[in-house]
Fold this protein.
Amino acid sequence: MSRVSPTLEGFRAGFRRPSLTFTEIAWRWTVGAVAWGLFLFSFVEYLGSLPVTNSDAALLRTRQPWLVGRAIAHILRGSLSRAGVAALLAALALSLLWIVAASVGRAATVRALLDYFRGRFASNISVKRAGAMKSSPWRSLIGLNFLRVVLAMAALLAFAGAAILVRFTSPDAHPHSGLAFMLFLPLAGLICFVWPMLNWLLSLAGIFAVRDGDDVLSALSAAGTFVHERWGPVFAVSTWTGLAHLAAISMATTAVSFPLAFIRVAPTRLIIAAVMLVTLAYFAVADWLYMARLAGYVCIAEMPEALAESATLPTPPPRTSIDREELILSDIPNLAVET
């Protein structure tokens, strides 16, 4: 039985099913466009609501940093609380939109990938597993995505708490900026390690919520068992797609630097359009790599046990023929020397 590489199968599924990438782009970019539109609209409306007196305008026209700072502080006085409340309401609305859109998009992509790989391994998949995708996964997906939003908010609060905690080591009377930074760095590193790992596990649990119709806790348990039993292929898929993503970031950064190099000679609108085009191209490639990684995970989950075991068993060395008449292989000592 031939070996199956989940990494190659994930990339192959991404090439053969471009509609999956378009679906991922559709819901992700829709949420992003709504977020940017809401931010720009709120920012313009907030600037329009700020009272600017004649004295503030006079101070701004001086272009002196200290006077301009005084004018801005006077303009923003009493309005930051309203901006904070508006930002909080906008964040809650966007979070609700992301939860719904992510649930719909993940259900569509995982179901398509399950159909693809069940056709790929049709001769080895049991009838019981093939019919296990009939349960509705919406409640589980919404619950998992809600936990991801809560986890992101908890991470932000953890960053703020770490900053407040290290602030006590550097009071205004006796500042110790170096000590505060050295204490904040490991706390921030711990948060940056735990947050992505838990978020990745919640995202992985969506596969089992769609495939088996499990609830939130059962899907998380299935995801943990899946990682424990298939940690080798899972690590390989994550590593190779991560390296490909890193290469895409490097190429996008290099591509963005070219139009920025002509910022003094080329029109500003042309530079902005080129940067936006490169950025959108990078986001499209990143979404394709995400689908390739998701396809690799689904391949591992749907791979029959026989193929999984054959993929992990070491290949025996090739057999070579031995000439039994060779004197150096004789059992009689010093026979080759005597002849």
